[in-house]
Write a structure and sequence with these properties.
By secondary structure, this protein is mostly helical. Helix content is 58%, strand content 6%. The protein has 4 helices and 2 strands. The chain is globular.
Length: 101
């Protein structure tokens, strides 16, 4: 039996995280977050790196990227492609749901 207790915080889409908070949530260094921004995976709010803020959807994208890298060995360019395809699938599912209702 697993006695591990999980805890966390639910974020709504209006919540923003700092670079340090996003890094901590992904168990990664700030440099990794910068590389996600450079690759176009994340788009922070704020013009200066010291003031970057990341949305809850950005946290989902970052964590998905982390899993793709750790579990499947996907590089950042590959992760960006996977994320774009997942976004497209979600968009198509929403369109289909509207057509079916």
């Amino acid at each position: 039996m697993n006695d591990e207790i999980l805890s966390g915080v639910l974020l709504d889409d209006d919540c923003f995280l700092s670079m340090a908070e996003l890094s901590r949530a992904c168990s990664a260094h700030a440099e990794w977050v910068v590389s996600l921004v450079e690759e176009g995976i994340l788009e922070p709010d704020g013009s200066d790196i010291r003031h970057w803020q990341f949305s809850a959807p950005a946290l989902r994208r970052a964590r998905t990227t982390r899993h793709l890298q750790q579990d499947l060995g996907v590089n950042l360019a590959g992760a960006a492609l996977v994320l774009d395809l997942l976004d497209e699938i979600e968009d198509l599912r929403r369109r289909l749901a509207r057509l079916e209702s």
